[in-house]
Amino acid sequence: MGNVTEQVLQQIVNGLSLGSIYALVALGYTMVYGIIKLINFAHGDVMMVGAYAGWFATTTLHLSFIPALLIAMVVSAILGVLIERIAYKPLRNATRIASLITAIGVSFFLEYGGMLVVSPQMRTYPPVFPDTIWNVGGIIIKYGDIVMILTSIILMILLHVIVKYSKIGKAMRAVSFDNEAALLMGINVNNTISATFAIGSALAAAAGVLMGVYFNTINPLMGIIPGLKAFVAAVLGGIGIIPGAMVGGFFLGLTESFVSGLGASTWRDAVAFLILILVLIIKPSGLFGKNIREKV
Amino acid sequence: MGKRINRQSVVTLLGVLLVYAIVQGSILMDILPPFIALTLIQVCIFIILSTSLNLINGITGQFSIGHAGFMAIGAYMAAIVVVKFQGPLMLALLAGALVSALAGFLIGLPTLRLKGDYLAIATLGFGEIVRIIFLNMEYVGGASGFSVPKTITWTWAFWLMVISVIIIRNFIYSTHGRACISIRENEIAADVMGINTTKYKIMAFTIGAFFAGLAGGIYANYLYIIQPLTFSFLKSFDILVMVVLGGLGSLTGSILGAVVMTVVSAALSGWPEWRLVITAILLIVMMIFRPKGLLGTKEFSLSFLGKKGEKNASSKD
């Protein structure tokens, strides 16, 4: 019996680490969807670019974890703004399908363009953390677990403060509530959207660096599956709702580690997508979403 | 009017026969390089896939990006019939297509309540689930793949493609097809006009899945081996790119898109990264400057020949 409890607690630790990555990426998805109603398929690949920026900073520039994290966040924020300005802005009034296809195009471009630039081979992240492992009553907690969970919680609190209290955060909420009314109130909608992309991409970059550090290897296609799963997390929590993305991310991370813990790790991805389809069918507005009746 | 359509059908039929005869002739004379033969059969497979996806995405205005999932079901079902039960090829292809249509029907029932982005993501999830199920099935070889004897010839692939396109074309121009178009144009208005939108959406989805399954069966019986990885969402995106490039809602556009993309990717097969980077740039530029695709909802037709014919006819009078 004690063994089972140990197993469960161990999977909770693993799940929280994994979940914090999903939550960070899901935040970007949800913020972008909230403000321009676009599923930014390229978001997972922005995370990949962030991971590479962090790798470059730690290997070539020999920086420690926090400066590398900051560099990666800045690089990805710039990339996010560029993507929005070049690819999405001309399509702001186009059909949903057109913007979704563009997002898929941007995603391909980053993945395979990335392959051309950094070569398809895997890169190993240098060990930036000590290999300290704590054994708390049979549960193994790695130094990386602590850093991962702490970093993501700090970033989430920071995001919450920005969205809730800063001027740009208020503008973001206004634009996402009603684009045109916000414009009439003198809010610079274009800059607000750019800021949203910058913040979302920076969070994705942080997730990318954490992922590289935690799993040691990165490659140009690393963003696809976590990107899709983070999207699942965002939908699960109710897309467009920031606390929903956090809860959805942690929920998905925990579910996945329990599925793996039960010895069915090859089914892990299927479970994530099954959750997605079930949520979409049962409650498409997500756990925290309100049902909005469509008007004719 | 009747005369014009007749003339056009005759010209099209002659064109189709000519293409078949040229390729079949060069195969018989053994002057066709195998790489080109492979590309031509792939063109046929992708034409079936893109026209059937166009029925869902372009004609009915739904947004599915799980077409590779249906293709996978058809491919594996056809392979099981051929390998495990020693069934004839025709039966295998039919079984694959029917099971895929059934899956389309079952998936369509709940997911078609969803709209736009949500439907897209749900179908993407469905496609991935199908792939993971086959990946975990030892009965069909799991990740290492499932070997199938090669029985598809150019004749099979070509005529199955022609038949599929004709059926899809006739569906689009039937009452049902027009109902589907009305859903695309305005679902609420279509509903108000008394069209059973759910029924037609599921019908389009099922027919689309049927032909995707057929294409999968052809694929499985041509390429010696099928692996779950082949049917990942990248394949769905490939098909989507063809449809979008040719024009959502244009059948000839889908055919054009399938031919262009298959030939381009065959030509760039030595540089797979460049192929996808070019596809990506093409897609983005296309969406920004011509979001309707090359042909939009128009059909490429030989009507200019028809008009000439009419003129001749009237001048004779």
Offer a few descriptive terms.
heterodimer, A: 296 residues, mainly alpha, two-stranded antiparallel sheet, two-stranded antiparallel ribbon, 11 helices, 4 strands, B: 317 residues, ABC transporter involved in vitamin B12 uptake, BtuC, 13 helices, 2 strands, disordered C terminus, transmembrane (chain B), transmembrane helix (chain B), Branched-chain amino acid ABC transporter permease (chain B), LivM-like (chain B), cell membrane (chain B)
List low-confidence stretches of chain B: 304-317
For the largest beta-sheet of chain B, the strand count, sense and barrel status come to: 2 strands, antiparallel
User: Could you tell me the radius of gyration of chain B in angstroms?
Assistant: 20 Å
Quote the beta fraction of chain A. Answer: under 5%
Broad shape of chain A: globular
Shape of chain B: globular
Strand order of the largest sheet of chain B: 1-2
Q: Which class do the helix and strand fractions of chain A yield?
A: mainly alpha
Question: Which whole number gives the mean pLDDT of chain B?
Answer: 85
- Classified by CATH, the class of chain B is Mainly Alpha
Any guess at the CATH architecture of chain B?
Answer: Orthogonal Bundle
> What order do the SSEs of chain B take from the amino end to the carboxyl end, as H and E?
HHHHHEHHHHEHHHH
**What is the oligomer described by this structure?**
heterodimer
Could you tell me the strand content of chain B as a percent range? under 5%
Structural class of chain B: mainly alpha
Family (chain A): Belongs to the binding-protein-dependent transport system permease family. LivHM subfamily.
Membrane topology (chain A): Multi-pass membrane protein
GO cellular component, one term (chain A): plasma membrane
Organism (chain A): Desulfosporosinus lacus DSM 15449
